[in-house]
Design a protein that fits this description.
Distance between the termini: 20 Å
Helix content: 40-55%
Structural class: alpha/beta
Strand content: 5-15%
Bound molecules: uridine-5'-diphosphate-xylopyranose
CATH architecture of the largest domain: 3-Layer(aba) Sandwich
Strand order of the largest sheet: 3-2-1-4-5-8-9
Largest sheet: 7 strands, parallel
Radius of gyration: 22 Å
CATH superfamily of the largest domain: Glycogen Phosphorylase B
Number of domains: 2
Shape: globular
CATH topology of the largest domain: Rossmann fold
Amino acid sequence: MSTVKDKSESETPHVLIFPLPGQGHVNTVLPLAELLALSGIHVTFLNTHHMHNRLLRFTGNIEARHPNLVFETFGDGILREPPVLSRKMKEGFAEVESQGMTKLRELCSERSGKPKVTCIIVDAFLGHPTSNLGDELGIPVIHFRTASGCYLWSYFNVPMLFECNELPIRGEEDMDRIITRIPGMENLVRCRDLPALCRGSREGTLDLDSVVFQAHQSQQAKAVLMNTFEDLEGPVLSKLRDHFPNLYTLGPLHTLLDFMKASKPPTSLSEEKDRTCMRWLDAQPPKSVIYVSFGSAAVFTRAQLMEIWHGLMNSNKRFLWVIRPNLVSEQDGGVLPMELTEGTTERHCIVGWSPQQEVLEHVAVGGFMTHSGWNSTLESIVAGVPMICWPLFGDQPINSRFVSEVWKIGLDMKDTCDRKIVERMVNDLMVERREEFEKSALAFAVLAKNSVSEGGSSYSNFYRFVEYVKSIC
Ligand code: UDX
């Protein structure tokens, strides 16, 4: 990649990147920071102390590798606790917003002693206050949306769905009703497939009104960045562009960074002690193992975990299962069932955390049981691994619908956690319908890799975006 050597220091763009301090969000945005730094742009990455310390443990001295990439941190009080899963999540979000805005203001001030900030890239969850600050300081603000295009497009259409009476959802018996009016997604999704907040629940500080507001608010951003690619979500992206004309698809970002530099980006900001699972995988036959992992934030009841456990055991397939220590809900005592303690047998391996991208690319892995978080979905697509989806919150229910009905690269187990269904789906994915799923998964893996290769859509969009960043400098 070329560096901007012909410009004086003061003319070099300085991008301030502010992700939401949660694993799924930092994971997505860090490769973008590295890519921009590699392009000769000054980058400041703003994170909480807590997330930054986790990040350093697994990236080594990332700053030394990128002279243009500087880390700044904030976060006192409640933000010293782990994010998202904290019981005080609501207060945590409010603190990220208030302490983050104070720090942003300080970094953008001319008295900061740093190169002048020429643009801010912020997680869309923090888009509204940041856009206000940007307007006040005269600094362009760009929104980064870490989730899928189908998620943004669904929430964007929620007001229209209320107007034409397709929403609200009227209880459990209404869940299989087809939603007919979302442009580009007509008759594709049932009520149960809509992003989770459409069910009337809350997620921390988030309720339906606030995420719909955020979705529309991104129209005020100077540009919108998304971790997806054209060949995956083309029809939805073309609808989105009617409302977000300056939209850049750059995904899968971890693969784009892989392509642009030899070394891999970090994906795991949690414990890395579990490389033992790689040794266990090495001993398994090709495509014989189903990898089971539900991301960094999903929480289960003990009963649900036992249904999955029995389903996996009864399937007679080998499995590698990531059981985070905090996987059981606090209402359910927070204690893991005895069966799910870490260890290995000939048939299964249970670990507390795994190097997920490596696992998915391992020759022994033939399927992925996932919560359909967007990073996990993209990582599985890149590795060409078919999925069984057990979505829980946020974008996950709509992602899993697209996996099963649009891309046809897996099965959607949504809303029914039953050992018989788990057993049947594992057998369908790994045996009965294996060829069919493998064929479509491999086709999407090729498209994903093409999109980040020279001349591909995400590759070209990245360079267009770099030019845009320079033009607003
Ligand atoms: C959250 C939301 O759940 C998700 O729906 C949204 O799209 C992004 O924010 P998370 O739950 O963590 O993210 O899921 P996901 O997006 O899949 O990200 C998990 C990341 O952790 C992936 O990059 C995955 O590779 C990594 N991971 C997970 C590991 O490295 N090891 C593991 O054992 C499990």
